[in-house]
């Protein structure tokens, strides 16, 4: 059965919605000698039948009025049986055809649709509709950029509120990437089955809800859980955003405008840095309820960071589903209406409202998926939902496996290596830079330490702050330490006799090999672990402080905000250059060139022996590497067909987040030990990934399949 016949049948199912003329209906094939039993006038031999009907009328005889003798016995008329068999024939043909044949037929349909859809998008033009969608999806991408920075900015303050240990802080930093990794794979796969808009709304709603909740929870465990689920939500947005936007862009505009869209990730980093700088240092912003519930400024910052996600979520309600996705699942009429909306919106904005949308029929691929219709009377409600969920996830898993079939295996594996090496080096270094700056600051801080040897103090009241001091072999008798703060103070081999500590707050303060006799500790946070190899004789601890009550303003916190702000801002030139050149030099050269230049920048880090030098090299590295990220996003969208696009992007982005977790863990472990390993590891990964990227196929002249 030729394509022309199949196309006509597909069209005739929606003829009343599209109001297409008979002349247009025949353009895809030749119907001579075929008279389908559909009740439509076809020409040819039809008049002869009309004459017979007229003669029957004049004779007062109509065969249809005859009573079939088996009618009252419940036996169907032979003509009715033949009619039903004719109608059932195409469905039976599909049922007994080999699945490979059906898939080959679908691929042929998809190729025809790809070229027709490209022409339709060109007719719709690029204008107000695409720019509106650009800003709506840009806010979602901005939320993703914010999520990466939030935990890093709140850690210094959160550790004070939650008494976090070093291992807890490390887990909190990695848990967001773990959630994003799972969310990218899961929600990206669902977007190819349930729709771009629906899954993006779900993704943003999860992120907004749990980000909002995380600002109020007090315990470390609940906060960790909320950030995990929040990361899962926003992790799914990235693959959906690029798949969604690309399906409204023509071939000439796709590379450039997807690169412009990437700028919102940079804007997210700038927004997070600016908000952290302006909100978190105001430790008094907030409120307390009793002694156990505290809502400090860093929690206000977490709330503010949810605003881009909420704004995108609200705006997305007014955006349509991707028409390319709708065509892929056979919803021709809905897709046509959306494309007409895009066309009319753009034409009105250009001052040409009289321009008519000339497309009347769009090719739809053959549907080969098995859909399960569950009746409301079948089983219980949770059984029905279980069947639907398992069926959907089986289809998602089939899509995942499809990306590893012979047709896409090599491209998927090469892209996976490039994504992973890029993430390992980039995310590892952007964590390593602030840690190295902190290390340099700590070294400078320790070099200014004051040392007191063999001091003797008696009957003295300490009511001021002691900071960055070491007291050795001292003797303190009948002294009072009231309403004071210890910051980076160590007492070594000292004697405390009949002293009194009240309302004392401490940070990095320890007593080593000290003897403490008849001393009272009242409402102080000098806990047991702060006394190392000490002898406590007749000493009393009363009403210990609960939780962490530190409010020291760390000078280096401000510098970290500045470093992140400058690092985010430094990618602006790279974003502009990549957007302008993406369609001129191609995706492959952009990825390879950017990664190789970034590898060269890594070697200059050997000369970063000061804070200003590290900041400068960080800005250079981020600016050089952003072009590779943009090109990776574009080529990943273009290499896969519509029904696998978000799934493939989700898999590769999930692998990217796994690389980020490894990079953070490996690079952070070498801070203060050596710079050689992180620098060589990052540069080697970038060189290997950049050279491999040059073997990928170029996609700038390719229509979106």
TrEMBL record:
Residues 133-700 form the Major facilitator superfamily (MFS) profile domain. It comes from the Eukaryota. The chain crosses the membrane at residues 131-154, 174-192, 199-216, 222-246, 258-280, 300-319, 413-433, 558-581, 588-608, 614-635, 647-670, 676-696. Residues 1-94 are annotated as: Disordered. Coiled coil: none annotated. It holds the Pfam family LD_SV2. GO terms for cellular component: neuron projection; synaptic vesicle membrane. Keywords: Cytoplasmic vesicle, Glycoprotein, Membrane, Neurotransmitter transport, Phosphoprotein, Synapse, Transmembrane, Transmembrane helix, Transport. The keyword Transcription does not apply. Residues 43-52 have a biased composition (Basic and acidic residues). It is found in: Cytoplasmic vesicle, Secretory vesicle, Synaptic vesicle membrane. It is a multi-pass membrane protein. One of its GO terms (biological process) is chemical synaptic transmission. GO terms for molecular function: transmembrane transporter activity. Belongs to the major facilitator superfamily. This is Synaptic vesicle glycoprotein 2B. The lineage of its organism: Eukaryota, Metazoa, Chordata, Craniata, Vertebrata.
